[in-house]
């Protein structure tokens, strides 16, 4: 087992109607909150009104900032920074899913460091040494941003999607009411289920490290999501199943499932390149390439893939290679069963050979970074995976 640090400081308030506790919780961290949300579903559902009443009752001032995009953008975050500064916000609250929460994190970093350009902070050209407190009111199980140390932004001017990992990204609190997902479109729920599985699998397949406890947690999380994922896609109002998926979402990306093993996230790098260039939905960009990625690398981590097949999918096969291939096929079949794309054409794109070369260079930072801790992947290897996913 590798050395590790586990830090999960987020206060989680979980259950029905807990959005009414937002004000009392937020009051611990500030007096003036910028509320970051998307295109208006939180307004139509009445959630924003309930959150604002809770804040008012707790004597916390607030200012609305809507318009967070599915793939959060640098330009929109910069608008939010200006709002936060003019309002004098001392905390930022993201209301929605990962897009709103990641935007809230970006605004918090920029507002705490107005002398620096946000992209310079994001790409670590300038060290990030402080930020404002961030809270989350979660409406969808997917990104796990409510408990993670990560956030992602797209710089539309240069067509680059980049993430930043820092403890400053840790939300101080997360308000989690799974009932809020009851009216979500099925495709959003399915993309969320996919993202949760990916966050866990991106940590699981790293070979040659023994950490049984972490493996048991990851395998149990995956079985739970597979069991309940189909249920919530078919019926988002299934509260009990949605509770399981929401809690799995938070645990999948708060670093618990990497303790002693670490993380890989090469599939995410492939997906980020697709999202930046084609504005593809995050979860869909991952399912579109996962099967091809797995088939490229499984022989280099054969015991891990075989163990995954047996422990997660219950495959009874003594031959490791046959078990591994069956586990990959089961995973791809699951994505298909919840109507997630398992190819680039299924994602709605048909890149040329030139486009694939460009995508591979984007994913590997012009072939200066090797992806994957299973086997190093250069731009040529990544292009091969993209082509296999056509």
**Residue fraction in strands:** 5-15%
Helix-strand makeup class: alpha/beta
How far is it from the N-terminal to the C-terminal residue, by CA?
A: 37 Å
Q: Assembly state here?
A: single chain
> Which spans of ≥5 residues are poorly predicted at pLDDT below 50?
none
Gyration radius, rounded: 20 Å
The global form is globular
Helix and strand string, N-terminal first? EHEHHEHEHHEEEEHHHHHHHHH
What's the number of extended β-strand segments?
8
Task: List strands and helices in order, with pairings.
Layout: E1 11-14, H1 22-26, E2 32-36, H2 41-44, H3 47-57, E3 61-65, H4 74-87, E4 91-96, H5 98-112, H6 118-122, E5 134-138, E6 150-155, E7 160-165, E8 173-176, H7 186-204, H8 212-234, H9 239-252, H10 266-278, H11 282-297, H12 302-313, H13 320-337, H14 353-363, H15 379-388
Parallel strand pairs: 1-8, 2-3, 2-4, 4-5, 5-8
Antiparallel strand pairs: 6-7
Helix pairs in contact: 4-5, 7-8, 7-9, 7-11, 8-9, 8-12, 10-11, 10-14, 11-13, 12-13, 14-15
């Amino acid at each position: 087992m590798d050395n590790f640090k586990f830090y999960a400081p987020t206060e989680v308030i979980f259950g029905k109607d807990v959005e009414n506790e937002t004000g009392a919780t937020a009051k611990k961290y500030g007096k003036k909150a910028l509320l970051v949300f998307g295109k208006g579903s939180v307004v139509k559902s009445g959630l924003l009104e309930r959150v604002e009443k809770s804040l008012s009752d707790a004597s916390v001032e607030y200012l609305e900032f809507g318009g967070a995009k599915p793939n959060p953008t640098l330009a929109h975050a910069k608008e939010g920074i200006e709002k936060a500064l003019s309002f004098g916000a001392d905390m930022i609250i993201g209301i929605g899913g990962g897009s709103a929460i990641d935007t809230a994190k970006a605004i918090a970093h920029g507002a705490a460091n107005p002398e620096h350009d946000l992209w310079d902070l994001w790409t670590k050209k300038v060290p990030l040494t402080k930020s404002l407190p961030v809270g989350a009111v979660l409406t969808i199980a997917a990104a796990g941003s409510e408990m993670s140390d990560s956030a992602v932004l797209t710089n539309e001017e240069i067509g680059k999607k980049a993430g930043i990992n820092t403890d400053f990204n840790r939300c101080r609190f997360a308000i989690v009411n799974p009932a809020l997902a009851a009216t979500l479109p099925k495709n959003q729920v399915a993309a969320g289920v996919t993202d949760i599985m990916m966050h866990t699998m991106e940590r699981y397949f790293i070979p040659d490290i023994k950490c049984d406890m972490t493996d048991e947690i990851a395998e149990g999380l995956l079985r739970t999501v597979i069991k309940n994922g189909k249920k919530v896609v078919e019926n988002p109002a299934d509260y009990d199943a949605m509770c399981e998926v929401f809690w799995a979402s938070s645990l999948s990306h708060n670093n618990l499932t990497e303790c002693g093993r670490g993380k890989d996230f090469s599939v995410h790098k492939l997906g980020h390149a697709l999202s930046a260039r084609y504005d593809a939905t995050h979860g869909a960009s991952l399912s579109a390439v996962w099967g091809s990625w797995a088939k490229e690398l499984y022989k280099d981590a054969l015991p891990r893939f075989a163990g995954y097949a047996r422990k997660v999918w219950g495959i009874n096969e003594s031959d490791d290679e046959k078990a591994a291939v069956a586990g990959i096929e089961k995973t791809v079949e699951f994505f298909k069963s919840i109507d997630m794309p398992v190819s680039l054409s299924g994602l709605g794109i048909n890149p040329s050979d030139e486009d694939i070369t460009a995508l591979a260079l984007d994913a590997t930072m012009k072939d200066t970074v090797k992806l994957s801790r299973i086997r190093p992947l250069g731009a040529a290897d990544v292009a091969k995976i993209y082509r296999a996913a056509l």
